[in-house]
Input
Amino acid sequence: MTARISVKKSGAFDKKNNEFVVEIRRIVDNCGLLQVTISERMDYDNPNIISMFKSGTMRVPVDRVAMLANAVGADPAALLHLWFTTYSPELLTSIDEFSMMLGNNEKAWITGLRKHFGSEVPSFDRCLLA
Output
């Protein structure tokens, strides 16, 4: 008879409270729209899908991330970047490397902006006016 051992890694992936799901909850809860409106803007018939995205019981399909961002007034590129960071970091490395031909200093600026501001990077014009 073999004993069954259950080990939880300290860095185990939590599909219901990962950074992407937390951000989905934040942007949906703060957008001022009903879930039915958001689901319609994403071409979903059932508004319960938004609750499933917010709870992490269903992953937002990658091809619907930009639609969700646009539906709630969030930055589609930032949300898509967070999706890949959360669910497919190995693919994000290739996307980031080849998506735009940037010099090392330019990449460092963008990385620094993302680290400093998270998903709320202000517009360039707003930074100039500050």
Confidence is low (pLDDT under 50) at residues 1-11. The first helix runs from residue 19 to 30. The helical segments are 19-30, 35-41, 48-55, 65-72, 76-87, 89-99, 104-117, 124-129. DSSP finds eight helices and no strands in the chain.
